[in-house]
Each structure stands twice: as structure tokens, then as C-alpha cells.
């Protein structure tokens, strides 16, 4: 599994305002947190002109209504691991923690999807492992996540993404297929994946757009790789395809557990922000460059407050990088677990940078001291939260 964030598509909801820009009486660009922007009436026509057909998102009026009803501070996005299985063994995989776990049963998964819906979730990042390696589980999730009322982004390494599979995903009402790309240099990408995987991603992007779905590439950057030729060529590829480039910063988890040497600096973060502000927009009106914390004029970490993650074996986490379990969906309601997390000020959307990848205070207090320990850790013990009744302890995990 490649390393990506909430999140990859979290800011897909930062849609462009209607002509005129900012809301009346303000000089700032609205964002999904302080103003949930309505879908521009012109967007379906714009997409039709660009591709000759309407994108899936434009054909979901119930989703548009649900989006309008959403309020700041509500849970909006779930990164859901369909499976821990993967057809690659990448050197930077954050999901190594869940590499060999038993899958949560379908009954519990179905109940969780229903509860997410009642809590207002309208955006799913469907990932793994590699989600298409478990087609039955993937189809179950896609059919039970209220697809007419949710925006669905499937994240893939592209190895098995052919035309038939893309058509199948479209029939299941997927809106977007995002692809991991380690480098815009074929040899570098393939060295970390499988020979030929770069070309499969490039081809799959064209097939996805041909099918009328949205697409993007996601690239993990370290302090060094951000300025590399491989990053520049990946940027050029995204621009040439007219798609978004999701920049995922290195996180000290998984195979990089506790490591700080590759993390970006404030200067690196400023450089990425500069790229976002100067690279223009794609045909949907979204900025070409994206990070999961970007949010108009109020960038913030969405973990817990707006975004959460569900592991393949049923653990609810504040984020797929923040591997602190609030419990298993087999044992407790999602509302209970999230309410407990909200006791911590770390998870209220008040931190301007990425908790796991940029915030030195958080990393030094909650990541580095637990390096090498079995994950996920017990969130209640680590953050001093009150544990709701009915929880089964995480045996051997930071009690």
C-alpha cells in the first residue's frame, strides 16, 4: 500500500465558488470548514465540455443536497481499508501495521457504514492494501455506503486497473480513482513497485478519464525528494493529464516508524503551499496541487473532527497515519468512540499543520516514544481519554 492521506481526496470538497469568488462581505476565499460551498451549477456543463460526458459527481443530486446540509465540525470523511492484502511491497508503506490481520466480518462492517451515514459522512476514501484485490469486500462496501449520497474515491496502485475494472467501479457509482506514483521517472517508480507499474498507472489515468470519472496522482514526499527530478516529472505528468496532484508528506509510521530524518520542514511546507497557489486549477475548478490539510484560509489537520479511518480489521482511528485505536466496531458504536476522542484538543481541527508528519510537539510526545511497539496503540491510554463502557482491551498494546 502506498502512503497517502485522508485524505488524499479530503479537499475534493473545497469546490470553487460561483463567479464572484468570496462570500458577500468578506475578502477571503471560502473553504469547506467555514463555509460549505454549494456545487456550482456550471460544473456539470464544464465537465461535459471537457470530456464529452458528465462526471459521476455531477449526476448525484442527493449527494449535493447532503453536502449542503453538512455543518462545520461534523464528521465528513472516512478512509476505509477494504483489505490488508496488497500486490506490492513498497518501502514506505504506512499500512505495514495492518499487513497480516483478520478482516472484520461483513455484518459489523455493514452496521458501521450505516452508522457513518447517520453521523453525516458523505465522503469515502476506499483503500487497502490494494482494494481491488478483494473484489467481493470492495463491492459490499460500495453498495452499502449509500453511493447516491456519498462521494467515493478508490485509491489504487494501478496494477490491476484495466478498462473492465474501471467500468465495474463506475457501475458501482465510484466518483474518482486516484493512483499512487512514487516518481515521474519510470525506473524510480518501478524500482519501488513492480516492473511496468509506471506505464500501467499512466494508461489507467487515461482510461479513467475516458470513462467519465475523476482521477489524480498521489506522491509521497520527503525533505529530499520534494526537490527531486522525480517529483518535477510527476508534477509535469499531472499537468499534462489535466488532473490533480495530491502531495502526501512523509509520516513516521509503518515502515518508517519513529523516523524523523525524512520529514518535511516548515520551509518545505511553504514550498508546497507556493506550488498550490501558483499552479492554477484543473477543469473542475479545484487547485491542481492539494494537501489533506489545505482548507482555503484556515488550513488545519482534520483528524478526528472531520476525518477518521477504519482499518481492515475494524479498528477506528483518528487518521490512517495516527495508529491509535478507539476500539473496534464490533464492540462499540462509532459515536461513542468519536465522542471520547473529542475530549482531546489535538483532534478538534485547531492545529494548523499535520499532526503526524509536521507537528514536532505531537510527534515527540506521541509518535517517537512508541516507535517499535505493536500497533495500533490504545488511544485512551495514550491521550488520557475516558474509556466508554464495553471496550475489550488491546492486549499488549500500551495499556
UniProtKB/TrEMBL annotation:
Which PANTHER family does this one have? Answer: PQQA PEPTIDE CYCLASE, RADICAL SAM DOMAIN PROTEIN
Q: Give one GO molecular function term.
A: catalytic activity
The UniProt entry, under InterPro entries, shows: Aldolase_TIM, Elp3/MiaA/NifB-like_rSAM, Radical_SAM_PqqE_MftC-like, rSAM, rSAM_sf
Q: Which SUPFAM superfamilies match?
A: Radical SAM enzymes (SSF102114)
The Radical SAM core domain sits at: 70-283
* Cited Pfam families: Radical_SAM (PF04055)
Q: What is this protein called?
A: Radical SAM protein
- Source species: Azospirillum lipoferum
Q: Which keywords accompany this UniProt record?
A: Iron, Iron-sulfur, Metal-binding, S-adenosyl-L-methionine
Q: What cofactor(s) does the depicted protein rely on?
A: [4Fe-4S] cluster
Could you confirm whether the keyword Chloroplast appears in this record?
no
The answer to whether UniProt assigns keyword S-adenosyl-L-methionine to this entry is: yes
One GO-annotated biological process of the protein = heme biosynthetic process
